[in-house]
Amino acid sequence: MRYFFQGLTLLIFSTTVIACSSNTKYKATTAGFEIYKDQNKAAILYDSKGDDLDSIAAYLLSDDIFKVTGYQPKVHTDYKNVEGSVIVIGSLQSEMMAAFINKKTINTTFLNQTESYLYKTVENPSKKINKAFLIAGTDARGTAFGVFDLSKKIGVSPWNWWADVPAKKSIKLVLNQPEFYSKEPSVSYRGIFINDEDWGLQPWAAHNYEPETGDIGPKTYAKVFELLLRLKANTIWPAMHPSTKAFFHYPGNRKMAELYHIALGSSHAEPMLRNNVDEWDEHKNGRFNYKTNKENVFKYWEDRVKEAKDIDGVYTIGMRGVHDSGMEGVKSKEEAVEVLSKVIADQRGMIKKHINSDVTKVPQAFTVYKEVLDLYKNGLEVPEDITLVWTDDNYGYIRSLSNKEEQKRVGGGGVYYHASYWGRPHDYLWLSSTNPYLIHEEMMKAYELNNKEIWILNVGDIKPAEYNMQLFMDMAYDAESFKNPLAVKKHKEAFFKETFNEELGTEIAAIKQKYYQLAFERKPEFMGWSQTERTTPIYKTDYNALSYGDEIQQRIDAYVSLENRVDLVEEKLPEEMKSAFFQLVAYPVKGAANMNKKFMYKDKALTYAAQSRKSAYQYKKLANQSYQNIVALTKEYNTISNGKWKGMMDMKPRRLPVYDNPEIDLSTINDKDLVGISVEDTLTVKGVDYLPTFYVKDKATYFVDVFLKSANHADWSVNQLPKWLGVSQKAGVLNDQKTEDRILFSINWEAWKQAGNPKNGEIKIEVGELSKNIQLLVSDSYQNISTSGIVEKNNLALVYAENFVANNSSNDQSWKVSKGLGHSQAVVQASAIEKTSKSKLENGAVLTYEIFTETITDKATLQLVAIPTHPLTTDGKVRIGVQWNDEPVTIVDFKTYGRSSEWKQNVLRNKARKNLKVSLKKKGKQTLKIYAVDAGVSLDYVVLNTKESKFPYHLGTETIISR
Q: InterPro entries recorded for this chain (predicted)?
């Protein structure tokens, strides 16, 4: 049978299968199997008595082979009509497959695996067939996974349709595939939640891909389900926003799920496979309140259970509000627990009555989301066979995982994780920028704590979350291969090499990782420093344009460099790869770059307006141009691939202020002065104009800006320049085309030595009639310390977590470096995570750092920066012990509560920060010790401030790298 999906029409063609001889001799071979070479052209055979999915997979494989070779294999169900070479697709249990393979020769363990497949080449299985390549599954999904894995091997990406990744063309196709038995998947139910589809998938489907339905319907879901199978996934939580009709509204949706063997679930807010937003009619049914309206709510759920009796589904148990809100009608946690307990009992009763008298045999999930976690912690008892599905905090940090007792539950544990989110403190629905290293860290932590039953990724509109979806599903399918964090780098490079080519894949992977890293510092959607629910206007960012090397310019430069790298790669790509490259790389990178530049230029305009610089007007134009660039990029997205994705990309989801063209008020520019001079001032004292202090052996560069105010022209020059001071430019001209110049200063240390190691100096800068003497200071405090030593400079010392001088482990706990994760890209994590917290610090692991200082003060501040993870389990904490020199140990807890202001700031900046006051009683070496208390704490870096800064800093990734 072959299935063609044209809107709501399902056309079925079938032929008769003739049983194969039971006397066939089995003879395996390791020789190559020729799909297409010279005169040898393989056919495809599947059993019409087999599963419908075998038919779908067979014809899709034929199409995939055609994409690679231009040869379309014929698909057969009649064994007698096949001759030569044949690819055989089907169940290991089938009568047809018995003609090619003896089940008795297969390991019993493999036969008992679910969703598994084998590859085997057999010679002369019949008089007509000289060679057969077998794809035999332990079940229908296993067979499909084997087929689509073969498609990937021959050069057809899982993203061939969804991202227009072209198939790798070949003039011949020969398989040299040894006998292979796949593993059983690591996680039982692996899939996606299509969510917040209002801005992409739904309008695209309704107006472009599936206009006959005017919605996300069976034709769209067929493509979604095919993608899931190609990613070796098996579960869907369907789209459920008000813009979309409920999944069960269109009978074809359910039929597609059945044909593709996709398990149907529903979100945390949709018990019993219902879609409350579309299906609960308050005018007809009353309030969604189990206390006051139990009869109608019960019937609402029971009707769906009856309807879905034979479906492959995972039933969401419990109750929240109609849509992502707390349960109605309860006035306390205690009352909520009481009502929810009754709800769960009643729901299991209807499952027992209508589906299986042994309710423990029906997959059920209790999603511990938002306020439900508090109810669970408050004593709610969930039956043992129900899977506890833990959730992240919507921003990538899992709120809790199974403790030792919960890990013993028959139903096991799972995770619902976000790669896209609508809500407070701010949405991120536009670009998918969650750092793969964070996804890896959190999901592998879940895996190690035995949460292996259900993994669901909220992908929003699927696009542009392609890579993160691929990573998540690959981890869910084979978690063991991801136990080393370096696996992320390897996976990303392999993905982009397979997607594009070996030559450019490594560079594309590096570009994408830089994109993720810059977004880890601050997502594009968060660059307005605004919040939502309630929605606030945009604010000035925390980046400092006048100090710390100009943090604003550093971030602009990083994105400009990334855009340039994208352009260089695109020039080298063949034309057929450019649409995929635009979707997977160019649009997200350039979109993020322009969103950042929009706000960075805006801040420069406002900062410079306060100094009455003429250049403020230019930066305003650049900010507005960055907005127009996003408009043009989005228009291009909706026209690529001959308009295939028209309606998919919206640059303003929910129309929040962050997406608007910024209004920049420059009315403060009203200066009678002609010109101006601005000196970089990081942590120096004002009153006298100093550049930040230079330190012996240091390669630091500091700047002075010269600029026009009301003048139209001015000459400038640097005078009285010491011979040992390097300068980027000694003189220049300012005019209407160039209203400012930045002069960079650094020290030539050889010349400095020849001049007698001076401790100070002076330069004079003249701009038109204005002149300014600027003092220079040189410190030799650390000239006898290794260049790798951690030192205080200009009242600040930056300590990377990985730069310890000692790492002492205990018998069962240690600090381990996790490369790739964090702002420093090398956090140090307290492990092993399966261990309990330490009650005595001396029994735990300890990190030792040495910091060299030149200041004596009792008012220094030690800022500890960690990744804002939550406690591993419901009763846990996120603590470390901190000891400064010989002072007593202070316990620091990074734990946050609910949706507090602290938590909001933590997730917006991906930093948990805690400050301690410390004393520097002497100059020279200071010792910092960090003790492991709770497993899972991930320390990123530490900042020592020896003087309160008058100039706030953001200390972003580029600052950390450059300083």
A: GH115, GH115_C, GH115_sf, Hex-like_dom2
